[in-house]
Amino acid sequence: MKKIGFIGLGTMGAPMASNLLKQGYEVTVYNRTASKSEPLVREGASQAATPAEAAAGQDAVITMVSNDDSIREVFYGEDGILKTLAQGTTVIDSSTISPGLVKELAAEVHKLGANFLDAPVTGSKPAAIDGTLVFMVGGEASVVEAASGLFDTLGKKVIHMGPSGSGSVAKLAHNTMVGINNLALAEGFAIAAKSGIPADSFLELVQLGSAGSKAADLKGRKIIDHDFSNQFSLALMLKDLKLASSLTDATGVPSPMLNLAKSLFQAGQTQGFGDEDLSAVVKCYEAWIGQTIGGKPLQ
Q1: What tens digit of pLDDT does each residue of 121-160 get?
Q2: Whole-structure pTM value
Q3: Active-site annotation holds for 171
C-alpha cells in the first residue's frame, strides 16, 4: 500500500498524514476547511477538492473526522468516497464514532468489494506527531495484517479487537476510563490545594504512589501551569462520553461513573472550555474551591 487518501486534517489527522509523507507514501489529502491542507501540500501531498477525489485510485483511504455526522458526509455525501472506492481498496476509519455506524459503513464498503477497518487511536496529539499511536482495530485479521505497514508508520502498537465495530467499542470503553481518570486527578488536586498542599508536591506523590496514572503523567503539569493548549479537546471528550453512554444504554451495562463524568465534562463545555484541552475541566473544581490548583486567587 503506497497510494493513500487521507481525509480529515485536524489535531490528529494532520500529523498522521505528515508522517506518511515522511516515509515516502504518496498521499492525497482532503479537509473540509481547505486551508488546512496547505502545510501538507508544501510537504509533498496532493490536495483533493472532495472526499471522492481523495479516495479515487488509492490503495488505502484513512478517515479521521470528529463525529458521526461528519463521517456520514464523507461516505454518503454528494462527493462522498462511496462514489469512487475501487475494489480492493482498504478503508481505515480512525474516527471515534458510534459502533452501529461503524458496522453500517463496513457493510457499505464491503458491497463495493473493498475492505474496511475501524481503527481508532489512543495517544492524542503528541503521539500523532511522534508516530507512537496505539490502534485498536475491528475487522478481518487478514486485512489488519495487510495494512501493517501503514499502522507501523503511524503508531507503535496495533491491537486487533475482533470483528467490525470492535475497535469502536474498545475506544469508547477506553475513553470512559480516560474521562474518569482525569476527573479523579482534578478532584484530588482540588482536595489538596484547598488545604494548602503545594501542587508540585502533590503531583510528585501521585506519580510515585498508587494513584499514579497516564492522566497524572500527561495532564498534571498542564493543570499546575494552567496550560490548556489543546492535545485532545474537552468537547471531543464529552462527545466520546455521550457515545459511550448511548452504548451502555443499548447494552444494558450500568455505568454510574460514566454518567457522572459526562455531567462534569458537560459543565465544562457549558462554561466555555470546550475548545481547550480536556484537562481544562479542572477549572470547574477551581471555581468551586475559589482558587487555582497552584494556589493563586481566581482572576
Answers
A1: 998 889 999 999 999 999 999 999 999 999 999 999 999 9
A2: 0.93
A3: yes
* Active-site entry in 157, 171, 239, 262: 171
Q: Is 155 exposed, middle or buried (0-12, 13-18, 19+ CB in 10 A)?
A: buried
Quick check: 299 pLDDT over 90?
A: no
- C-alpha gyration radius of the chain: 20
- Give the 3-state secondary structure of 114-151: CEEEECCEECHHHHHHHCCEEEEEECCHHHHHHCHHHH
Residues 6+ apart with CB under 8 A from 269: 234, 235, 238
Q: How confident is the model at residue 79 (pLDDT cuts 50, 70, 90)?
A: very high
Phi, psi of 5, rounded to the nearest 5 degrees: -95, 130
φ, ψ of residue 176 to 5 degrees: the values are -60, -45
Query: How far is it, in rounded angstroms, from Cα 129 to Cα 16?
Result: 7
Place of cell 486534517: 9
Q: Please state, in angstroms and rounded to a whole number, the distance separating the CA atoms of residues 238 and 253.
A: 19
Lowest mean pLDDT among 15-19, 80-84, 120-124, 279-283: 120-124
Give the chain's domains with CATH numbers. 3-163 (3.40.50.720), 170-289 (1.10.1040.10)
DSSP secondary structure letters along 19-46: HHHHTT-EEEEE-SSGGGGHHHHHHT-E
